[in-house]
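Field log, afternoon session.

UNIT: design team B
ACTIVITY: writing a sequence onto a fixed backbone
BACKBONE:
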C-alpha cells in the first residue's frame, strides 16, 4: 500500500504520478476527482500521439475518465474550495486499485465524507471504473453530480508552446442510459471512442445533464462512473462506437464487484511472476514492488505495438517519447518476466525499421539509424527548445546520440536469446540487425594515420560532452553490432539457405559486405583489448580535461554540483552527467578484465553527478558485479526511492527506466541472474541482512523460481521443458517440476 496522508497542494503532482493506474494500453494519473487548481490530469493511450501546434510528437492528453464533479448544496466538493478535515489516499499495488477518503469541513451544508475507489481494468483494456460514496454527517444535503466527462484537458509539458488540445470531439451523443463521443487527433487523425455512464445508487441516470438528488444525513450515496475508452485499431476506423458501447455493456452486465474480481485476478497473475520478496528488509521489499508495479502498469501483450515512453503512461514528461531507456533499462524486465509484453516493444521498433532507414538516409548514412527520441512514426522526434533570447536551441542528442541504434539491436537480440521467440520471424530480426550494422559501417571513418576506424562527432550516454570523438560506449556498441550481424547472418545462411538467400537479395546484401563489417569491427578505435588501460577513457581527450573533485553529498547521498560548475561548463571538466563507461562494462562484461571494471568504477564514481535517474541504478548494478557491494548498496537505496521520495522530478511522471534499472539491480545484481553467451547464469549475492530473497524468471518458455540466501540457492523449474543453467559456475540441467539446491563453493 502506497499512501498519501493529508492534503498538500505542493505534493499534488508527485502523488498524481506515483499513484497512477495503468494496464499497458491505457494509463491515468491519479489526479483528484475534482481536479483542483494545479492538478495535472493525464490520460494516455499507448501510441496515441499528435503534432498539432507542437514541434514534435506529443503523447496526447485525452479526456479524463476519472473526473467527477460533485456539488453539495451548490458548493463543489473540492480540496480547494472546502476545508479539508482529513484526507488519505492508498494505492494498492497488488490489486491496481486507488482508494480515497476525504472529509470536507463545514461548507454550506455541513461535513461531507467523500470516498472513492477506481481502477483501469487489466482484463478489459478500455474499461475505467470510478465509484464514489458521499455521506453527509451533519444534516441532509442536495447533491448534484455532473454527468459529462473530463474534456477539459490540455497537453502542457512544453510550456513555451502553450496549452494544447490535441483532439477535436467529432461526435458527441449524450443519452439517458449512456453517452458516447468520438474524438480525433488533429494532425495524426487517430480516432478514439469514449462510451460512459454515470449511475446514482443502482439507477442509471440521465447522462444528458447534471443529476440532482437528496442526500439523507448519515446514509451514503453511491455514484458510479464507468467509461470504456478505446483507440480505433490501425487502418480499421469502423466499429469503434460498437466496441466501446459493448465494453460498457459488459461491465454493466458483470457488475462492479465481478469486474473488479476479474481485474484483480489478472493482476495476481502478473504478480505471480513478478513478485520479489526480501525477508529481512521489508521496506526495501515494498519499494522494489512499487518499482515493479510501475513496470507492470505500462506493459501489455495486446493491442497495436507501441513504445514505452520515458515516463510511460504516467505523465507528459519527454512528451511520451521512447529512448534507449526501453532497450537497456526496461526491456530486460519484460524479456525475463513477461515475454509477451517484451514482444510488443520489439515489434514497435521492427515496425519502424523503414523510418530508421529514412532517418539514416536523411543524415547521409546507409542502413538504419534509429531516432534518439521516437514517437508514433519513428522519425527523429527530439525537440528544439527556446534559448530564452528569442532563438531555438537544438538538443544535440537528436543529431549525435547514435548509440541508440546499437541499443535497439542489442535489446532485440537479448530478447531472442531469452525467449527463443517462435512468434517473431528470424529473418525480420536479422533484417534489423543487418541494417543497423550497415549504418555503423557507413558511420565510421578510417583514420589513415592509425589504421583504426573512428566514430567522430558523437554523443555517448553522458550528455554533457557534446559531441566528442570515439566515445567508448558507442564504439564498443557499434563493434558488437557489426560482429553480431556478420555472425548471425552467416549462421542463418548455414541453417536456412533458402530464406537467407531471399533476405540477402531483398537487402541487396553480399558476403563481401558482411566480411567488411567484420574487418571494421576488429579495428574500431579504442576497442582493441591489448591497447586498453586499467581505466577506459570515455572519449578521445577526456583524460586531458581537468578533474574537479566532487564536494560533499546531498542528504540523498548523491553528489552536489561543485561551485562554479553547471550544465553549460561541465563539458570543460571531467564531470559527467551519468554512468557512461560503467554502463558499457555492464552491457559487455566479457570485454573487460576485473581490474578494468574495478578501476574504471572507482575513477568515474568520483566524476559522476547522477543527474539522470538512469545513473544511480547503473552504479548499483555495477558495484555488485564489480565487487564493491557497499558502494552498490548506497546507490541502490537512492535509486530505489527515486520516485517514491521524489529524488528526481517525479511531478511529470515516473522514471520508468529507473524502475527497470532497479529491477535489474535486484534480480541481476543481488539475485545474480545474468545471461552470458546465451546461458542463464545464477550467482546470487544476497546481502546477509536480507537473509533470503525470492524472485522468478521466464527462460525459454519456462517459469523458474529462485530462492536465494547468502551462499546458496534453490531453483525450481515450473515449466514443461528442461532448463539449462550455470549455477555458481557449474552447469546444471533442471528437469521440469524439479528443484535443485546449490551452494557457492
Ligand atoms: C538522460 C538520457 C535518457 C533521457 C530519458 C536524459 O536526461 O540523459 O540518458 O535517455 O533522459 O530518460
Amino acid at each position: 500500500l502506497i499512501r498519501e496522508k493529508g492534503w498538500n497542494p505542493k505534493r499534488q503532482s508527485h502523488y498524481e504520478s506515483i499513484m497512477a493506474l495503468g494496464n499497458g494500453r491505457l494509463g491515468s494519473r491519479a489526479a483528484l476527482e475534482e481536479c483542483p487548481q494545479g492538478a495535472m490530469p493525464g490520460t494516455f493511450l499507448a501510441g496515441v500521439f499528435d503534432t498539432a501546434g507542437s514541434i514534435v510528437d506529443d503523447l496526447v492528453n485525452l479526456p479524463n475518465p476519472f473526473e467527477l464533479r460533485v456539488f453539495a448544496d451548490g458548493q463543489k466538493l473540492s480540496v480547494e474550495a472546502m476545508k479539508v478535515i482529513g484526507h488519505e489516499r492508498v494505492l494498492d499495488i497488488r490489486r491496481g486499485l486507488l482508494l480515497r477518503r476525504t472529509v470536507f469541513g463545514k461548507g454550506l451544508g455541513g461535513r461531507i465524507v467523500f470516498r472513492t475507489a477506481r481502477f483501469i481494468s487489466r482484463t478489459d483494456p478500455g474499461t475505467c471504473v470510478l465509484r464514489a460514496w458521499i455521506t453527509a454527517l451533519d444534516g441532509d444535503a442536495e447533491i448534484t453530480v455532473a454527468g459529462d466527462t473530463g474534456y477539459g484537458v490540455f497537453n502542457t509539458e512544453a510550456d513555451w508552446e502553450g496549452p494544447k488540445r490535441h483532439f477535436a470531439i467529432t461526435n458527441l451523443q449524450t443519452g439517458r442510459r449512456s453517452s458516447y463521443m468520438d474524438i480525433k487527433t488533429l494532425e495524426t487523425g487517430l480516432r478514439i471512442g469514449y462510451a460512459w455512464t454515470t449511475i446514482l445508487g443502482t439507477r442509471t441516470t440521465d447522462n444528458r445533464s447534471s443529476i440532482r438528488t437528496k442526500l439523507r444525513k448519515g446514509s451514503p450515496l453511491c455514484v458510479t462512473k464507468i467509461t470504456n475508452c478505446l483507440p480505433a485499431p490501425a487502418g480499421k476506423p469502423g466499429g469503434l462506437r460498437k466496441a466501446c458501447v459493448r465494453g460498457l455493456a459488459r461491465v454493466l452486465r458483470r457488475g462492479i464487484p465481478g469486474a473488479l474480481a476479474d481485474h484483480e485476478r489478472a493482476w495476481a497473475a502478473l504478480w505471480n511472476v513478478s513478485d520479489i520478496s526480501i525477508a529481512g528488509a521489508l521496506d526495501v521489499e515494498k519499494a522494489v514492488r512499487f518499482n515493479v508495479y510501475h513496470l507492470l502498469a505500462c506493459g501489455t501483450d495486446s493491442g497495436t505495438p507501441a513504445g514505452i515512453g520515458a515516463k510511460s503512461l504516467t505523465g507528459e514528461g519527454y512528451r511520451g517519447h521512447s529512448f534507449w531507456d526501453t532497450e537497456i533499462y526496461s526491456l530486460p524486465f519484460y524479456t525475463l518476466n513477461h515475454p509477451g509484453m517484451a514482444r510488443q516493444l520489439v515489434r514497435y521498433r521492427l515496425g519502424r525499421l523503414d523510418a530508421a532507414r529514412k532517418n539514416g538516409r536523411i543524415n547521409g548514412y546507409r542502413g538504419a539509424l534509429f531516432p534518439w527520441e521516437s514517437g508514433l512514426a519513428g522519425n527523429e522526434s527530439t525537440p528544439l527548445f527556446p534559448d530564452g533570447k528569442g532563438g531555438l536551441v537544438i538538443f544535440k542528442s537528436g543529431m549525435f546520440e547514435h548509440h541508440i541504434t546499437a541499443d535497439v539491436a542489442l535489446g532485440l537480440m537479448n530478447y531472442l536469446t531469452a525467449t527463443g521467440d517462435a512468434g517473431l520471424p528470424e529473418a525480420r530480426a536479422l533484417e534489423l540487425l543487418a541494417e543497423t550494422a550497415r549504418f555503423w559501417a557507413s558511420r565510421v571513418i578510417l583514420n589513415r594515420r592509425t589504421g583504426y576506424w573512428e566514430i567522430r562527432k558523437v554523443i555517448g550516454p553522458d550528455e554533457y560532452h557534446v559531441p566528442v570523438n570515439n566515445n567508448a560506449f558507442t564504439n564498443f556498441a557499434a563493434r558488437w553490432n557489426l560482429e553480431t550481424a556478420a555472425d548471425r547472418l552467416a549462421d542463418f545462411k548455414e541453417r536456412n539457405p533458402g530464406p537467407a538467400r531471399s533476405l540477402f537479395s531483398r537487402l541487396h546484401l553480399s558476403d563481401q559486405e558482411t566480411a567488411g563489417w567484420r574487418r571494421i569491427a576488429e579495428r574500431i578505435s579504442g576497442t582493441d583489448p591489448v591497447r586498453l588501460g586499467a581505466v577506459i577513457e570515455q572519449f578521445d581527450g577526456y583524460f586531458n580535461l581537468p578533474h574537479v573533485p566532487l564536494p560533499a553529498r546531498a542528504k540523498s547521498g548523491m553528489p552536489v554540483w561543485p561551485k562554479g560548475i553547471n550544465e553549460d561548463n561541465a563539458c570543460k571538466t571531467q564531470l559527467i552527467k551519468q554512468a557512461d563507461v560503467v554502463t558499457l562494462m555492464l552491457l559487455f562484461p566479457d570485454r573487460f578484465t576485473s581490474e578494468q571494471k574495478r578501476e574504471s568504477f572507482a575513477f568515474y564514481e568520483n566524476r559522476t553527478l547522477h543527474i539522470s535517474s538512469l545513473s544511480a541504478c547503473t552504479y548499483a548494478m555495477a558495484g555488485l558485479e564489480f565487487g564493491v557491494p557497499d558502494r552498490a548498496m548506497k546507490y541502490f537505496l537512492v535509486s530505489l526511492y527515486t520516485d517514491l521520495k521524489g529524488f528526481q522530478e517525479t511531478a511529470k511522471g515516473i522514471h520508468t527506466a529507473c524502475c527497470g534499472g532497479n529491477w535489474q539491480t535486484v534480480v541481476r545484481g543481488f539475485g545474480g541472474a545474468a545471461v552470458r553467451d546465451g546461458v542463464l547464469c545464477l550467482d546470487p549475492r544476497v546481502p546477509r541482512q536480507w537473509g533470503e530473497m525470492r524472485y522468478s524468471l521466464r527462460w525459454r518458455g519456462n517459469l523458474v523460481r529462485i530462492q536465494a540466501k547468502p551462499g546458496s540457492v534453490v531453483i525450481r523449474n515450473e515449466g514443461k521443458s528442461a532448463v539449462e543453467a550455470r549455477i555458481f559456475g557449474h552447469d546444471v540441467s533442471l528437469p521440469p517440476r524439479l528443484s535443485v539446491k546449490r551452494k557457492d563453493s
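LOG NOTE: DSSP finds 19 helices and 32 strands in the chain.
NEXT ACTIVITY: expression trials, pending approval
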